[in-house]
Automatic annotation (TrEMBL):
Ranges of residues in domain Glycosyl transferase family: 278-436
UniProt-recorded name of the protein: Glycosyltransferase family 4 protein
Pfam families: Glycos_transf_1 (PF00534)
Taxonomic lineage: Bacteria, Pseudomonadati, Pseudomonadota, Alphaproteobacteria, Acetobacterales
Keyword Protein transport: no
UniProtKB keywords: Transferase
Length: 460
């Protein structure tokens, strides 16, 4: 029986450094859950613990436990306006004691997450040590049924499939891992590429990311037996890059899509008091970074307030943690007093908070300049909410015909689209009804099956 080995090293590392999973990490976790649901007896998860050939198993139960630790940990309550990553990120109406409470809560959550990871790591290391000490045939057989701590070097078999679904670009020696898997273990290697933004849109990326991403793909992509992408647009970018680098791909990249599982809040659960009132706001779900184009929305909202008056303009809510290349944006927002409260920031919202935010908003916006998919667009539709989005890159694949699109570089186009939506509440209501009647959210299980169809692991 062939086994599918899924590398989750970068996912676990990310959760050790951040309060909540972001785009790629959410895709990896949901895809992993779907793979387990499809073929539970043929999917195992591993992470690297030392050199390029040193991988150990991690049980899905351990990972689910870690997800639960982070998914519903509230960063702060009250009138939270912004994240605590720097003094420039402070919102206009948080008193000093509130800011100290926010810092304490954030620090406590980080400590809790690290402690959980350390316990998991200690457990895995102890099992690896036992495996190294006891290499008898009987012990080797027992490892096949162990949840965590088994050595990939002992468990992998010819004909197995090794999948990299995340972003392990910091491992400059990853090509050594692939060569070891293919040449020594006779394992097929598959790679999921989320986007090629650091290569084709480097202006929106940190220079370190550009360097590591480019070098990693230049050395690893030529070794891939199968290449999967989140979208058809990304598949085209991969082929374009392969032509530029004269890389011969064994076959065309396979778009698997991205699911839109929307986690609704538990019926009867109380609405968090710090969230804005229902139907009083427009929602923008995304990490705050330059590529996501928050600055364009700030300009549009300022113009709306100037032309209509603050009382006639809904609040714009940014939901997501503060990322990179937004220092100037945060300074501008602080300087304008967050548009006197007409713009709010809810950092790292929990799944429960997100559910309420989606369900109670007027509509959502997603003006990103470049995406490998556009998860907030499909999540908005899954929640039955209209979305005004950028018409670039892969975003129309996520929104299909039910989202409406604008040119994210054209402030007048964005302003017009939002103004027309605000001016016609009847049309907005009909749009919402049409989404709820006709939208069929893409399923993570289908995404997983497209991968399994290319491997021997999904066959009986």
């Amino acid at each position: 029986m062939s086994m599918l080995w899924v590398d989750v090293t970068d996912l676990l590392d990310y959760l050790g450094q951040h309060n909540r999973p972001s785009g790629i990490q959410r895709v990896v976790s949901e895809l992993g859950r779907a793979l387990v649901a499809c073929v539970p007896e043929r999917v195992r998860f591993v992470r690297r613990f030392a050199g390029p050939c040193d991988f150990e198993t991690v049980s899905w139960q351990d990972m689910e436990s870690l997800f639960a630790k982070t998914a519903e940990k509230v960063i702060a309550h009250g009138t939270v306006q912004t994240a605590v990553s720097s003094s420039d990120d402070a919102g206009p109406s948080i008193p000093p004691q509130g800011r100290f409470a926010l810092i304490r809560e954030s620090a406590a959550m980080q400590i809790s997450t690290f402690r959980h990871l350390n316990r998991l790591a200690d457990n895995l290391v102890s099992r690896v040590r036992r495996a190294v000490r006891h290499r008898s045939g009987q012990h080797h057989a027992s490892l096949l049924h162990a949840d965590s701590g088994g050595l990939l070097s002992e468990l992998a078999r010819p004909g197995d499939f090794f999948l990299v679904p995340g972003s392990p670009w910091d491992f400059a020696d990853y090509s050594q891992t692939v060569r070891w898997l293919r040449d020594s273990r006779r394992v097929t290697f598959g790679l999921l590429i989320h986007d090629m933004i650091p290569i084709f849109n480097p202006e929106w990326c940190d220079r370190g990311v550009i360097a590591s991403f480019t070098s990693w793909h230049r050395t690893v992509l030529p070794l891939a037996d199968h290449v999967f992408t989140t979208s058809a647009a990304t598949a085209c970018d991969v082929q374009k890059y392969a032509r530029q680098e004269r890389i011969s791909l064994p076959s065309e990249p396979v778009p698997i899509g991205v699911g839109a599982a929307f986690h609704r809040h538990t019926p009867g659960s109380g609405r968090p008091s710090h969230l804005p009132a229902p139907n009083s706001y427009v929602l923008f779900v995304s990490t705050l970074e330059a590529r996501k184009n928050h600055i364009q929305m700030v300009r549009v909202w300022r113009r709306l307030v100037e032309e209509r008056g603050a009382a006639h303009v809904p609040t714009l809510v940014f939901a997501g943690r503060a990322g990179w290349l937004v220092h100037d944006l945060m300074q501008q927002l602080a300087g304008m007093n967050w548009l006197d409260g007409k713009i709010r920031h809810i950092p790292s919202p929990t799944d429960r908070e997100l559910a309420f935010l989606y369900e109670d908003c007027l509509f959502t916006v997603f003006p990103s300049l470049a995406e490998g998919w556009g998860l907030p667009v499909s999540e908005s539709l899954a929640a039955g909410k209209p979305c005004l989005a950028s018409g670039t890159t892969a975003i129309p694949e996520a929104g299909e015909s039910l989202a409406r699109y604008f040119d994210p570089d054209n402030a007048e186009d964005v302003f017009k689209a939002i103004s027309e939506t605000l001016d016609d509440p009847q049309a907005l209501s009909e749009w919402s009804d049409r989404i709820r009647r006709t939208y069929s959210p893409p399923q993570w299980r289908d995404c997983a099956q497209r991968i399994l169809d290319r491997t021997a692991c999904g066959q009986s």
